[in-house]
Structure formats: C-alpha cells, structure tokens
Automatic annotation (TrEMBL):
Organism taxonomic ancestry: Eukaryota, Fungi, Dikarya, Ascomycota, Pezizomycotina
Stretches assigned to the Peptidase S33 tripeptidyl aminopeptidase-like C-terminal domain: 398-499
Keyword field contains Chloroplast: no
Signal peptide: 1-17
Protein name: TAP-like protein-domain-containing protein
Superkingdom in the source lineage: Eukaryota
Pfam families associated with the record: Abhydrolase_1, Abhydrolase_4
Protein family: Belongs to the peptidase S33 family.
InterPro entries in UniProt: AB_hydrolase_1, AB_hydrolase_fold, Pept_S33_TAP-like_C, Serine_prot/Carboxylest_S33
Span of domain AB hydrolase-1: 76-232
Keyword set, alphabetical order: Hydrolase, Signal
Length: 527
C-alpha cells in the first residue's frame, strides 16, 4: 500500500485535476444537497468512446457528481449503485447522507452516470416512440397470463432485432469492461495515487469484480456489497442464484408483522398465523390475476401486485406498504392507518406517471444494453428457453416470473460487444477486497458473496444480520464501525464476522438514529 504521506508532493497537482473535471456547484433543483454537510459538485470528464478503436479520437463526456469530504480528505471513493442501468448520480444524492458517515467523513465521494444510462449513450432501439414504449411496457411478469411467456419471447426477438439495426454502434460499447476502463480514466484524472477506491452495490459488485480482475494492481480498497454471482451474470441463461432466498424473505415479512402486532402492522389484527397471512397474500394474487381491482383512478392487477411483492424484498422500509395493501384487498383494511389510495399512488409499479416514464424507460433499455452485452450465452429457440423459465419458477414463486422479459431479450441479443471480460475471476488484488452480504437478501443471497470471495485472494465476507438488498438497507452500528474502519484505517474484520442489526422491522427508526447512537458528528446527520 502506498502510504498516504507519499502523496503530499502531488497535492499541488490537484488544481489541475479540478480543472480537468471543471467542478461547479450542482444545480440544487437537479441534485439537492440540503441533507448533507457539503455541497454537491458536478463535473465532466472526456474519455475514449471506444477503447478498442485505437485510431479513433471520438470522445464520450462522462457526467460526474462529488460530495467533498467534510473532514480532511484521504482520497476519492467511487460508487456504483447497481441495476445495471440505475441513474447513479440520482441514487448518490439519496444515499449520500448515509455514505458520508459510513466512510468516516474522510473521503471525497464520487460517482458518474455510466455508459448506457440516463443521457450517457442511451440505447435507442426503436425510431418510433410508440414502439419504444412497447419495449418498456411489455416487460410484465411471465405468469401475468397463460400467453405472457410466449409474448415475452417474441417481444425479445423483435427488440433484439431493432436494437441491432438502430443502436448497433452505441450498443457495442456499453459493456462492464468499458465502464471498468472509464473508472480507471477517472482515477488517472484525479491525480491522487493512481489507485482505485470503490464501493459497489448489487450489479455494482459485477463492475467491481470485473474492474479488479482487469486492473488487480490498481486496487487500493474495494467494498462489494449485495454481491451478485458474477459467474452466472456472464455465463448463465439467467441469474438463477439471485432469487434463491426471495421466497424465504417474503415469508419473513409476515412473521415480523405478527411479532410487531396490530399497532405497528394492521395485518396482524385478525388473529392469524404468519402462514395464514402469507396464504392470504397468495390467494389475493390469484384472485387479482383474474379480476384486477380498481382503486380510484388506479388499477391493481397481477403485474402491479407482483411489483409490490418484488419491492418488499429490497428493504424492510417497504413492509408497511405491502402488508397494508394486503390488509385492504384481502381483509377490508378496517384498522389500517393510511388510506389505500395514498399508498398506491406512491408506488411506481401502480401509479406510473408521465414524469417517471423517461427514467423508467431509460432504466429498462440501459439494463438491456449493459446486461445483454455482458452475458455470453444465447438461446436459439423458445423451446430451448422453456427450461430456463421452469428453473426460475422452481427457484422462486415471488421473483421467478418477474424478470423473465429481460432474460428472454438477452438470450436473443444480436449486438456484438466490442469488448467483454472473459476471465475466470481468480484475482489477486493489490489490497484485499471486503465483501458484504445480508443474512437474508432476497435479491442477492449471502452464498453469492462467499462464491465470489473464494476467487479473491485475501478477501473476507462481512455478514449483516438483517433483511433486504445491500447493507444500506440494514441500519447497524456494527456495520457502520466495521465499514468505516475499513475505509479509514484499512482494517479488515475476521471473515464470517456477523454484525447485528440495530433497527427492527415495522419501526420507523433508520440510519439517523444509528448515527446518533454511535456518536457520529452531529452536523452530518440529516433527520
Ligand atoms: C466549465 O463549466 C462552465 C459552466 O458549466 C462552462 O461554461 C465552461 O465552458 C466549462 N469549461 C470547460 C473547459 O469545459
Ligand atoms: C480505423 O481502423 C479501422 C481498421 O483498423 C478502419 O476500418 C477504420 O476506417 C479506421 N478509422 C479511422 C477513423 O481511421
Ligand atoms: C464535524 O464536522 C464538521 C464538518 O462537517 C467539522 O467542521 C467539525 O470539525 C467536525 N467536528 C468534529 C468534532 O469532528
Ligand atoms: C400518481 O402520483 C403522482 C405523483 O407522482 C400524483 O401527483 C398523482 O396524483 C398520483 N395519481 C393518482 C391517481 O393517485
Ligand atoms: C407460474 O406458473 C406456472 C404454471 O402455472 C407455475 O408452475 C409456477 O409456479 C408459476 N411461477 C411463478 C413464479 O409464478
Ligand atoms: C460459484 O458459482 C458458479 C456459478 O454458479 C459455480 O459454477 C461455481 O462452482 C461456484 N464456485 C464456488 C467456489 O462455489
Ligand atoms: C482508525 O484508527 C484510529 C487509531 O487506532 C482510531 O482512533 C479511529 O477510531 C479509527 N477510525 C475508524 C473509523 O475506525
């Protein structure tokens, strides 16, 4: 490890780096920094559009955002929040109040909208906007009806064809290998120690493992949190392992509801066991499949209810919404505290508004451009795809049919990427990587963290005993201490260390309480 002191002579160069990125205070209407003790800076960096084309000077302008360290900075940490395809800069502004304490306030935090996302090389597959809408709106769960699976396959055929005809050039430079090179361009332009500090969540762990495998000598520190099985991501027909604990997590919601009692979870007011409540949820799904329910201007159909089930796996913070919706639609909701319409109107799975649409549509085409380009398997026919669907159904009743359209599309993808990482993920990084996984994560089971960690020399796995996707979904004093100690002092926990959660489901407490209890600098804590 390069001692930080050795960097002091280069500090004079920081002025150059500032100039390179052309940092300016972000427009608060776009990126509001009122919840953090610093003001967000926005900047840009020009990088090669196509790293494989050595004779081309075509540039891509990356859009970056930074939260300068509230204390003296030890360097920059780069973030990726997953998808693939999320709007990193938007997610950064939401998560920054948590990320600043987690990194001890001693790092500049930074991210950028990666290739294929938001307005950085957006993948435009259809010239006609109505066709482009269809590409997005047809992504329904494959069990929405008897005919949905076949429709999703045909939609995948049509969209893969349209993307290759209309977006072939841009679609070839969106793979994770390109983003890894972009990350290193940012590191170079920062003019710190030429080493990467990186924190990736969910798909961000695929980006992290890929970057570490391509540039092992340039990794200073890396946390990979909510780990995807990177082998499946690149080499399987679907991310089967991702959904292995989805059903178990879904069942747990009803146990915690009963435990919390009717005051905190109105669904607990019918003297039913957790199993009976879960059975009522599945009966409701089946009834709604055949007879959707109108609530004011909104309609709750199979796809919408499945969307609510799927959302509940992300974080215990969504559990009151899902249990209240089930309470109303299955039991009448007499004891529910919030009107049903209010809950439904806030759920994008049900109330998709015109203002949400560009973001949602872009997220879907970004997912296609990045994941389909990365994935190295193709399936020749619908008949050969059926076993994939069957295996997903066997893996999870909650999630098995939800992402089907995305897999059907990728299995027929026709754009040839310019570069894909094809190595084995047996990696010796300059410094060891810290993997983090929750005990019960319905999107990325803990076993995937152990799977990927086993290929990373010296890496360790930190377990956080809680529910949801990523440790940011489980407020915990222990993970706060462990994660900030890794960033600030390079301290690794013993592998297999298990952190207790500090906040129980169905209470309204969240990270600010944990920060307060841990004595985090009061001026960093937003209420
Ligand atoms: C830096 O940003 C400002 C304001 O956004 C812009 O006017 C200026 O042209 C930029 N300079 C460079 C070198 O890109
Ligand atoms: C770059 O090189 C390739 C072949 O190596 C060639 O097909 C292409 O026309 C060249 N492009 C430019 C801009 O010179
Ligand atoms: C708390 O953070 C602020 C900057 O946000 C800093 O000025 C102050 O010195 C910090 N206080 C302590 C006790 O570290
Ligand atoms: C849907 O959500 C928007 C805000 O995102 C809100 O203005 C609108 O009233 C909601 N629609 C319904 C029917 O509740
Ligand atoms: C989808 O439907 C099939 C056939 O009815 C059923 O076997 C399977 O369990 C269902 N899977 C999901 C995830 O809904
Ligand atoms: C990791 O997962 C891949 C894909 O499922 C599998 O082939 C491999 O054997 C696993 N490795 C370990 C060490 O468990
Ligand atoms: C880093 O180590 C120092 C010295 O042991 C200690 O005082 C400090 O609390 C540690 N910082 C973190 C964030 O763990």
């Amino acid at each position: 490890m390069v001692p930080f002191r050795a960097l002091l002579p280069t500090l004079a160069l920081l002025a150059t780096a500032d100039c390179t990125f052309n940092w300016t205070t972000c427009d608060p209407a776009q990126f509001d920094s009122s919840a953090v003790p610093v003001s967000f800076q926005c900047g840009t960096l020009d990088v090669p559009f196509d790293y494989t084309s050595h004779n081309s000077s075509e540039k891509l302008r990356l859009k970056l955002i930074k939260a300068p360290a509230p204390l003296k900075s030890k360097g920059t940490i780069l973030f990726n929040f997953g998808g693939p395809g999320v709007a990193n800069r938007d997610d950064f502004t939401t998560l920054a109040p948590t990320l600043i304490p987690l990194t001890g306030g001693q790092f500049d935090l930074m991210t950028f909208d990666t290739r294929g996302t938001v307005d950085t090389i957006p993948l435009k597959c259809h010239r006609d906007p109505v066709q482009q809408y269809r590409m997005f709106f047809s992504q329904k769960p494959s069990n929405s009806s008897e005919t949905s699976l076949g429709e999703l396959w045909a939609r995948g055929t049509a969209d893969a064809e349209a993307c290759s005809i209309n977006a072939g050039k841009s679609g070839g430079v969106l793979t994770t290998a390109f983003v890894a090179r972009d990350l290193m361009q940012v590191v170079d332009a920062l003019e710190e120690d030429s080493l990467l500090r990186y924190y990736g969540f969910s798909y961000g762990t695929v980006l992290g493992t890929t970057t570490a495998a391509m540039f092992p000598d340039r990794i200073d520190k890396m946390i990979l949190d909510a780990v995807q099985n990177v082998h499946e991501y690149y080499h399987a027909q679907a991310n089967f392992e991702e959904w292995e604990l989805s059903d178990e997590l879904f069942s747990t919601i009803f146990c915690h509801c009963v435990e919390a009692g009717p005051e905190l979870c109105s669904l607990a007011s019918y003297n039913k066991t957790p199993d009976e409540l879960e059975a009522a949820a599945w009966d409701l799904l089946d009834a709604i499949k055949h007879q959707p329910v109108a609530v004011g201007e909104l309609v709750v159909d199979y796809a919408a209810l499945k969307g609510i089930f799927a959302q509940s796996l992300y974080s215990q913070r969504f559990w009151p919404s899902i249990t209240t919706v089930i309470d109303y639609l299955a039991f009448g909701g007499e004891n529910a505290a919030i009107p049903l319409g209010t809950i439904l109107s806030g759920l994008p799975a049900i109330n998709t508004t015109a203002s949400d649409l560009p973001r949602l549509m872009n997220g879907d085409s970004a997912l296609a451009g990045i994941y389909c380009g990365d994935n190295q398997v193709r399936t020749g026919s619908f008949a050969d795809f059926l076993p994939v669907a069957e295996k997903l159904y066997r893996t999870s009743s909650v999630m098995g049919d939800v992402p089907m359209g995305s897999y059907a599309r990728c299995q027929q993808w026709r754009i040839e990427p310019k570069e894909t990482y094809t190595g084995d993920f047996e990696v010796q990084t300059r410094n060891p990587v810290l993997f983090v996984g929750n005990t019960l994560d319905g999107h990325t089971p803990l076993k995937s963290a152990y799977n990927v960690s086993s290929g990373f020399e010296g890496s360790v796995v930190l377990e956080v005993d809680g529910y949801g996707h990523g440790s940011s979904s489980v407020p915990s004093q222990c993970s706060l201490k462990t994660i900030s100690a890794y960033w600030v002092n390079g301290t690794l926990p013993e592998s297999g260390t298990r952190c207790e959660r500090s906040v129980e489901p169905f209470t309204s407490d969240w990270w600010p309480k944990v920060f307060k209890d841990a004595g985090v600098n009061a001026s960093w804590i937003a209420e």
